[in-house]
Amino acid sequence: MTAQLDIDALIDDPGTRIVVCCGSGGVGKTTTAAAIGLRAAERGRRVVVLTIDPARRLAQSMGLTELDNTPRVVKGVSGSGELQAMMLDMKRTFDEVVLAHAEPERARAILENPFYQSLSAGFAGTQEYMAMEKLGQLRAEDQWDLIVVDTPPSRSALDFLDAPSRLGSFLDGKVIRLLTAPAKVGGRSAMKFLNVGMGLITGTLGKIFGAQLLTDVQTFVSAMDSMFGGFRERADRTYQLLKAPGTAFLVVAAPERDALREAAYFVDRLDADEMPLAGLVLNRVHTSGAPQLTAERALAAAEALEENGSQTSSAAAETLAAGLLRLHAERMQVMDRERRTRDRFVSVYPDVPIIEVAALAGDVHDLDGLRAIGGRLGGADA
After folding, report:
1. Where are the alpha helices (DSSP H) in the chain?
2. Which InterPro entries is this protein grouped with (predicted)?
3. Side-chain half-sphere of 115: how many Cα atoms within 13 Å?
4. Spatial contact of 50 and 58, defined as CB atoms under 8 Å apart
5. DSSP string, 128-143
6. Per the structure, how many domains does the chain have?
């Protein structure tokens, strides 16, 4: 029998300092992260929720007009704890790193450099790397008992695990020497390098041509030279933090084939990287107030009512009752399909603890909605 995931025990444990929620899009991952943050705060912990998802639902549900790179206090939290929330601003975080680790004059040269501006705004891997930087900053500040991280949807949710090597390999010595080589060679060799190098550069950098690009790169490299080692060192440190005791990963999924297939990918990847998986949150599970009435029995009763309806004076009432029975049958069929899908996952991953969260009647748009989700995460039926 699959173990029950105990969310309350996880967030009540003072040793739990980081909870990372990952999962595919459309499964309620952002809402789950916010609900966990709120529940932990109302159970007495100082919590900050960091979202990397650009959706604005988190801010709206917490009653905030906006989320940005600065933690903002969420009002209306009951109990002795405190909840803050923020959304990763990739470029601002990169700017903060430069300002914190470079002399003022050198920092200004970096921030004004066109190559840096493109890199910080959209180079592949920068967002995930900066998520690692921000998580490391929050943990180092030690102002919160618990940090809840809401990752981007789909498989990119785990790209931040690769961030140290992805951006680090770009910034290491070999690449830097390659980038500066054209200035020493010049002429056709420089243009040949440029044609190859352009393959490494995406987005806005792809619109920059000729020697100007090389000049910008060289200026960037010169200004950043003393910082390269620090980038990799800090990212590696945060990566190790994610593997350390006190960190817990929660995979969020819906009871649907595609969502659980993605969940399986996350579980496998976390296991391969030796990351601490706490369990699976199976979200938006359908339930019924009359589970003893099977779909088959409900359909049979509906057919009987429809056959007799035209022969009685209460035809309208019996037609309505038949319609409700058919709706119940459809719900029971959905529940049966969800159960089979869940059981297939469990058969492959019997050791992964699971908590099933029943679907709410409507969308979550305020703290009460998050509170209701938190109650279900804690094991309450309603």
Report:
1. 7-12, 29-42, 57-61, 90-101, 104-112, 114-122, 126-141, 163-171, 173-185, 187-197, 211-224, 228-243, 257-272, 295-309, 315-348, 367-377
2. ArsA/GET3_ATPase-like, ATPase_ArsA/GET3, P-loop_NTPase
3. 21
4. no
5. HHHHHHHHHHHHHHT-
6. 1
**134-173 burial, b if ≥16 CB within 10 A, otherwise e?**
bbbebbeeeebbbbbbbbbbeeebbbbbebbebbbebbee
* Contact between 63 and 75 (Cβ < 8 Å): yes
Taking the chain (382 residues) in runs of 10, the rounded mean pLDDT of each run is: 89 96 86 94 96 71 80 91 90 87 86 82 70 87 94 66 64 52 48 46 43 69 69 80 93 93 92 94 88 83 75 70 85 88 95 92 84 88 53
pLDDT at 178: 53
Residue 325 in any domain: the answer is: yes
Kindly state whether residue 247 falls inside one of the protein's structural domains.
Answer: no
pLDDT at position 190 is: 45
Any domain includes 133: no
| Domain span holding position 304 | 295-337
